[in-house]
Write a structure and sequence with these properties.
The protein has about 575 residues and is an alpha+beta fold. It is built from 17 helices and 18 strands. The strands form 4 sheets. Strands 9-11-10-13-8-12 form a 6-stranded antiparallel beta sheet. Helix 13 packs parallel to helix 17.
Length: about 575
């Protein structure tokens, strides 16, 4: 018996030693693999200079009629982008196969560009929630707490404006955002969502059902699941915002029957713009229309589209007159209130059978196009990436998996053959490369709504950026033209100039039917929250002559490729510079 026990004990000791040895070997192997991968990444990063070389366009492209060929008669071999930068080395003449050679280099540069694209992730940017002004977080709320209410997403009472912030939502932030738009009430839900309106929700809930802590303020309650913590916004602050945020839209011929065109009206002696705007804001209308002593509130419609303005002198008013140009014309102002006829959005109820991409080079206006598409169709757009800052601005599709097919289309900046062929069709958005490069450089250093500083523009990063990204602008279009299955080409400049006609094309391409009033609502909210704020662009010219020569050649290449596929060429304004 003792002998058997001794053998068992010896076996267990050997087994324990063997397990220890295998565990140690496993950990060592994992450590070696990790070190090897880290070394590989460092080596790849050190090759940025060679991958950054400019990709020239063949001189025979000068026959394209988009610019005067004489501007390219004497291209400079090996241009310098800025003082202090090594000369760009052009390849041998026998390697210049134009679009084919340019596209072959695209895969080589893609990893570098992805590192560039994600170098300054949005989480490192100062989070700018749509409509929120920078302010100190405080637990002191100046508004009056009205209680906990039921939140019905299908029949929402506080539907004037909606904001999100997954990291920094506070009661004060929400109140400030609603006050800026002249709303009376601010409601918070899920700890991170803010809703504005002028009417209290009808159904009250138990106080304990509002139990979600604010994401940016410990100890404060920001609603709950389908529950709103509602505050009455401070009146004085709201009044000041109303006066400051009224925007003059123009002088227009008045409709034949104003009472039929506009749902609300007010007759007020000594009527002022502030009086009319405040009246319409309380009624939650985006337009305040003044004709003499009469104030009307409403929306842009087919009968009053705000497309044909006239000379403001026709709308001149004096204190003793009771009408404007004998009642034929009226002054129109935009109130701080948002047009809510096109703000309702949702995910597709069934998976889309057609997988559509919204493809563009970075800085080409993809986010703005998504804003227009979402408000026109009523469906969320998806994204190949996840951008927390965009999610906070209301793009809920950012958090949805890009292959879920629950969104109307998917944003992408990818241009590889595999990534392109995954989509059944695509809207290809193209913008002037000069503007795109500057917009993307601004985004990298100052977020979606800021501007890069003069120091950024004068640093070595700018010529490196142009050297790499200019070729990407060209190869992105070329590869989508080659591998895309069904394309709609949209030029950013055309979309900006003729919004409704171009947006109609995009909506029809997505196989969605929309009303004219909804499109007019989108036009009324065309900018959304995507205008850059802060210090305007620097005064100096950021592009050197060598940069312009390089970019202009890429423009010629893309122009010829578009015409070769029976698409319209690039707008003439792209070159020369």
């Amino acid at each position: 018996m003792a002998k058997a026990f001794f053998r068992l004990q010896k076996f267990l000791r050997r087994t324990q030693f063997l397990l220890f040895f295998l565990t140690a070997a496993y950990l060592m192997a994992g450590s070696l693999l990790l070190l090897q991968r880290t070394r590989l990444v460092i080596q790849q990063g050190s090759r940025g200079t060679s991958a950054n070389q400019a990709l020239p366009v063949p001189e025979e492209m000068t026959r394209v009629g988009i610019i005067d060929p004489r501007t390219l008669q004497n291209p400079r071999p090996g241009p310098r982008l800025l003082v202090g930068m090594d000369a760009l080395q052009e390849p041998a003449l026998d390697q210049r196969h134009s679009p084919h050679w340019l596209m072959s280099r695209n895969s080589e540069l893609r990893q570098l560009r992805r590192r560039w694209f994600h170098r300054f992730p949005s989480d490192q940017e100062p989070m700018q929630t749509a409509g929120f002004k920078a302010m100190k977080q405080t637990t002191e709320h100046k508004g009056t707490y009205m209680g906990c209410f039921t939140d019905d997403s299908r029949e929402r009472t506080l539907k004037g404006a909606v904001f999100y912030d997954l990291r920094k939502m506070t009661v004060a932030h929400c109140q400030e955002a609603c006050a800026e738009r002249a709303y009376t009430y601010a409601g918070l839900a899920y700890g991170a969502e803010c809703y504005c309106g002028n009417t209290l929700p009808a159904a009250a809930s138990k106080p304990e059902e509002c139990n979600s802590e604010c994401k940016g303020e410990k100890g404060s309650v920001c609603g709950g699941v389908n529950r709103l913590s509602v505050y009455r916004v401070e009146e004085l602050r709201a009044g000041a915002r109303r006066r400051r945020n009224v925007i003059y839209r123009g002088c227009f011929r008045a409709p034949e029957n104003l009472t039929d065109t506009f749902p609300a009206s007010l007759l007020q002696p000594n009527l002022t713009v502030e009086m009319c705007s405040e009246f319409c804001s309380k009624k939650e209308f985006p337009l305040a229309v003044i004709r003499g002593q009469e104030c009307y509130c409403g929306y842009p419609t087919g009968h009053f589209s705000l497309h044909d303005s006239t000379d403001r002198l026709r709308c001149s008013r004096t204190p003793n007159t009771s009408s404007t140009a004998e009642g034929k014309y009226c002054l129109v102002y935009q109130t701080p209130v948002q047009d809510t006829r096109c703000t309702d959005r949702k995910f597709l109820t069934t998976k889309s059978k057609v997988f559509v991409a919204l493809s563009s080079f970075p800085g080409a206006g993809n986010t703005w196009a998504r804003h227009l598409i979402e408000h026109a169709t009523g469906y969320y757009t998806g994204s190949y990436y996840f951008d927390g800052a965009l999610y906070n601005k209301g793009f809920k599709g950012e958090k949805d998996h890009w292959r879920s097919r629950r969104t109307i289309c998917v944003k992408t900046h990818e241009s590889g053959k595999t990534e392109i062929e995954m989509f059944d069709s695509a809207i290809l958005l193209i913008r002037n490369p000069y503007k795109s490069l500057m917009a993307e450089f601004n985004r990298k250093y100052a977020g979606h709504l800021g501007y890069a500083t003069d120091r950024n523009w004068k640093s070595k990063e700018w010529p490196d950026f142009v050297n790499s990204y200019a070729s990407w602008w060209a190869s992105h279009v070329l590869e989508w033209l080659k591998y895309g299955k069904r394309l709609l080409i949209v030029h950013y400049e055309d979309l900006k100039q003729s919004l409704i006609p171009k947006l109609k094309e995009m909506v029809e391409f997505l196989n969605v039917t929309v009303t004219e009033d909804r499109l007019l609502c989108v036009e009324n909210n065309r900018d959304g929250n995507f205008k850059r704020s802060g210090a305007k662009q620097k005064n100096f010219e950021p592009f050197t002559q060598e940069m312009k020569d390089l970019i202009n050649r890429y423009i010629l290449t893309v122009d010829e490729a578009l015409r070769g596929r029976n698409f319209s060429g690039l707008p003439r304004e792209y070159v020369p510079r």
